[in-house]
Amino acid sequence: MSWLSEFVDVYDKNEKNLGITSYRIYHPKSGEESKKAYQMLPVSHIFLNCTLQIDLNADGTFAGAFVVDDPKTIVPATIESSIRSGSGSYLVPLPVDDKLQYLARDYSKWSGDEKYIESHKKYLEQFRAYLSFLKEYPDQYVYRTLQAVYRYVTENDIINDLWTGKIFGENVAKEKVAGNNLFKSTVRFNIRNPENVKRFENRRFFDAWTQYYHQVLQTDTVSGGTDEGIDYITGEENVILTSKHPKGILDNAANAKLISANDTTNFTFKGRFLTADEAVTIGYDSSQKAHAAMKWLLTKQGFKIGDRYYLAWEVNGENTADLSIVSQNPLLALAQKKFAETTEIDTNIAENFRKVLIDGANKDDYSLQGSVHLIELESPVNGRFGVVYYQAMSLQQYINKFASWYGKITIDDRQSFFNLKQVCYDIYGDRVDDKRMAATVSQLSHMILGSQIVPWSLLSAIYNRAIRPASFNDDKGWRRVMRTASKLFKAYYDEGEIKTMLNDSYHDRSYSFGRLLAIADVIEEGVLQGSENNEGRVTNAKHYMSSFAQRPLDTWKIIYTNLQPYLRKSKYSFKASKLIDEIFASLDAEDKHLNDPLNGKFLIGYSQQRNDWYQKKKTSNE
After folding, report:
1. Helix residue ranges per DSSP H, 170-282
2. Residue 340: is its pLDDT beyond 90?
3. Sign of CA dihedral 484, 486, 489, 495
4. Residue 456 has pLDDT above 80, yes or no
């Protein structure tokens, strides 16, 4: 239950945010900025999509109504009403705001179904009990406001008011009202006031219902309606328990529950327990807080791929930071900015990177002993979702892992960070489906924060793409894949001989053949770019790359022969010929495996040699 207790901790440290609307800013590829609202749910409240708002005067008289533009509304709820479903749900109303079938005393007359008379009676009965509590409540403004709502629903015909107020249009015939979703409408009430403070956004009302409903549950424990026991989340004893937990945590799976024990058939308890309580007991408050914090964080900073949701956070005092390895990360953003400001690369890149991250953490008052949490959730079937991965580590460990990984993947002086979704596209192509995307992003993130041993299945897939430049629509896309492949292979080999920059003294067969191919490529590319007729033509090095990776010695003879005309035209002919001779001389002519297929070091040698060539060319020109 450690991850649930961490969500409870997030809730407790962010109670100041209860009910406050904040916005998450998105920057889609279209360039048009968009935003999404999110709020932290108070205990014993749910989000309800309200289609209508009815405004009342302070005396409870009708003041108007309109179709709302912001339907997501925080409303009070009981355990039963928050998860109601099925044929008996018409007898389980919410306390104040709800569907018209509960609120309107004239609903049965308009719908022709008299069972909704009982819906309205249940609603009023629950409302009256709440008002009885509020009579003695210290904040009498809450009592007066809700008394006005109660007076309106008991003394007025809501549907008639909406009809005469022409909320659904002047020319809508009575028999077409249901077709215009009147019967399905969900209503929130507001009392007009000089301060223009909306009742359903006012924390005074949240606190009042939370206190009242907690009292109701305590009373139920005395009568035996609610159980008391050990809360497995907090470890506390004699707390109010619940076996009914919130839904609506995931945006795209509104009915999915994380914890459920309402199915007593089909081996629910795997033959180990007779009842759900024998497996685990969870406190009502803990369940409410954990689910509310999870929903808040997922909307605030989580992201989704297919049916899988990803979330990473660090609680820094009262602030909850987004430390996702894919989403916006303040520490990584600082490091990227720092490295972009320098043109020189430190030989100990990992240590340098670690220092930058620690400086950033200290600058923003992070506690290096604080914990970073990563969780993945998945909803594979309707009505259920589960935790497929969870990891917690100290911020110090988190920084060390990123520093180590960055040191392993850096292949030249260009500073950049992995976007794991883009890496997945590089490995499998643009047509990768959501299921494979989710699995690969998970695999990569677990690897970076775990063993940092790159799976061979990923290396094999990206190697086969990287050695086939002709299969790409543009050279830019292929170069990105080649660069990603080189980084992954550098992390895989992680040898002292394969350095951040080109190592002239490293004479591994695959690495050396990669260097040879790069020299042939840049020479021919330079000549072609200077010719109007041949600009954009694929070089022989790229054309034969796939064959070169399989039979390097045989294929090099063809490439080298075809390179001669370009060597004669290139102003770098002497430099290139000298390098080719030096590299070829370093190869063991007696090696019987000289013509065997190349491994991933070939890609590293190719990438580093190209970068080194253009860096020295740039320096000489300056």
Report:
1. 203-223
2. no
3. negative
4. yes
Q: How far apart are CA 299 and CA 383, in angstroms?
A: 19
Cβ burial of 184 (10 Å; 0-12, 13-18, 19+) is exposed
**Residues 65 and 162 sit within 8 Å (Cβ to Cβ):** yes
For residue 78 the two structure tokens come to 């009981």
Q: Is the pTM for the entire model greater than 0.90?
A: no
Backbone φ and ψ of 414, nearest 5°: -90, 125
Backbone angles phi, psi at 471, to 5 degrees: -80, -5
How many angstroms separate the most distant Cα atoms in the chain? 102
Confidence of residue 318 (pLDDT cuts 50, 70, 90): low
Closest by CA position to 452, among listed 464, 443, 463: 443
Report how far residue 417's alpha carbon sits from residue 312's, in angstroms, rounded to the nearest whole number. Answer: 17
Are the C-beta atoms of residues 21 and 37 closer than 8 Å to each other?
yes
| Cβ-proximal residues to 125 (8 Å cutoff; 6+ apart), any chain | none
Task: Please report, for residues 42, 457, 522, 550, 617, the alpha-carbon distance to residue 528 in angstroms, rounded to integers and kept in the order given.
Answer: 66, 36, 10, 26, 17
Confidence of residue 264 (pLDDT cuts 50, 70, 90): low
For residue 55, how many other CB atoms are within 10 A of its CB?
A: 14
Token pair listed for 610: 């190209």
**Residue 450: CB partners within 8 Å, gap ≥ 6?**
391
Strands of 239-242's sheet, edge to edge?
A: 228-229, 239-242, 282-283
Average of per-residue pLDDT across 519-531: 89
Q: Report the pLDDT value the prediction gives residue 269, as an integer from 0 to 100.
A: 55
Rounded to whole angstroms, the Cα distance separating 60 from 158 reads 12
Angstrom distance (rounded) from CA 608 to CA 612: 6
